[in-house]
């Protein structure tokens, strides 16, 4: 494993500079970046250091994920405070879709609030989501409610022409069925993020013209790696889904990592200090490791070309002005 010093690295992005990345899934509103874990404060807020590490690692843009109405508002405010690097998504995660019906003014007002949030912040919002289906966690929201308000959120995409940032867990058949029935409501296309499905599920998603987002949770098993190897390069996006989905030593993909960020020592959250990263808390700078694993399973020697292809894929859908 090589040590990676970003200040002195000679790695080039297609011979024109350091490789550039867009992290399509960064949960930067999470309280871990404020130093709070499970309701307990462990260290001072360090989001600015997190963003600086990301920048030094070539992370050009980060999409801050909105998981419900309030979180979408916070994502937008964060994007406004870092307009050069951060953008936001607006939507309601499937496990939180009960918020539509529990809203004091009814589900239509919840929908209207999401739509107004997008329309009033067009410079910051690049996608509708995170929306979709999650059958692994139906204890938080039942399947019927998830499906009802997933279909409702497709109207946000139809009304704004924004691409979709999609969630899918153990629900691919229904996800594909609903999207297939509402193709007219997804004019901007979209990406199924944090994909960990089978080859058959991969192909069904690709047949819809969607992109597939890969992070550490996509690279846990040998079967995962085989599925990822079969994703066409022109349909790939990458992400960290931080602060979750880190690539752990127990994961099949871990052995394929080449870059070790040892200039930032990892410490327990209780022993945090400036210049260190928190063990078990993922950060956007780790996106390079996702790229390295994908390049390895695809047996690609030119990782710079893969980085450029993925950067172009992502900017084409979410950042057309780049």
Task: Outline the structure in words.
The strands form four sheets. An eight-stranded parallel beta sheet has the order 2-5-6-7-8-9-10-11. Strands 1-12 form a two-stranded parallel ribbon. It has a two-stranded antiparallel sheet with strand order 3-4. By secondary structure, it is an alpha/beta fold. 35% of the residues lie in helices and 17% in strands. Helix 4 runs parallel beside helix 5 (143-160). The chain is globular and about 50 Å long.
Topology overview:
Layout: E1 2-3, E2 21-26, E3 36-37, E4 40-41, H1 47-56, E5 59-64, H2 69-81, E6 86-90, H3 98-102, H4 107-119, E7 125-134, H5 143-160, E8 164-169, H6 172-181, E9 190-192, H7 199-207, E10 211-214, H8 222-229, E11 236-238, E12 259-260, E13 266-267, E14 277-278, H9 287-297, H10 303-318
Parallel strand pairs: 1-12, 2-5, 5-6, 6-7, 7-8, 8-9, 9-10, 10-11, 13-14
Antiparallel strand pairs: 3-4
Helix pairs in contact: 4-5
């Amino acid at each position: 494993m090589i040590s990676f010093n970003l200040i002195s690295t000679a790695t080039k992005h297609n011979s024109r500079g350091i490789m550039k990345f867009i992290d399509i899934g960064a949960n930067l509103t999470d309280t871990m970046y404020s130093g709070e874990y499970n309701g307990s404060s462990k260290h001072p807020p360090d989001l600015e250091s997190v963003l600086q590490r990301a920048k030094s690692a070539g992370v050009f843009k980060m999409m801050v994920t909105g998981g419900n109405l309030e979180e979408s508002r916070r994502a937008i405010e964060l994007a406004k405070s870092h307009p050069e690097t951060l953008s936001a998504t607006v939507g309601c995660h499937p496990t939180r879709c009960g918020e539509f019906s529990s809203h004091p003014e009814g589900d239509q007002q919840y929908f209207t609030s999401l739509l107004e949030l997008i329309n009033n912040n067009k410079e910051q919002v690049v996608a509708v989501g995170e929306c979709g289906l999650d059958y692994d966690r139906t204890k938080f929201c039942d399947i019927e409610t998830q499906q009802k308000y997933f279909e409702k959120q497709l109207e946000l995409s139809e009304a704004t022409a924004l691409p979709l940032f999609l969630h899918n867990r153990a629900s691919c058949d229904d996800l594909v069925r609903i999207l297939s029935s509402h193709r007219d409501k997804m004019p901007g296309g979209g990406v199924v993020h944090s994909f960990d499905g089978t080859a058959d599920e991969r192909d069904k998603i690709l047949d819809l013209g969607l992109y597939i987002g890969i992070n550490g949770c996509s690279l846990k098993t040998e079967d995962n790696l085989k599925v990822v190897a079969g994703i066409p390069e022109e349909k790939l996006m990458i992400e960290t889904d931080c602060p979750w989905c880190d690539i752990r030593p127990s994961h099949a993909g871990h052995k394929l990592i080449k870059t070790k960020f040892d200039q930032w020592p990892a410490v327990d959250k209780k022993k945090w200090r400036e210049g260190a990263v928190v063990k078990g808390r993922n950060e956007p700078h780790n996106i390079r490791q996702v790229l390295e694993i994908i390049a390895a399973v695809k047996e690609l020697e030119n990782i710079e070309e893969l980085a450029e292809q993925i950067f172009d894929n992502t900017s084409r859908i979410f950042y057309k002005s780049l």
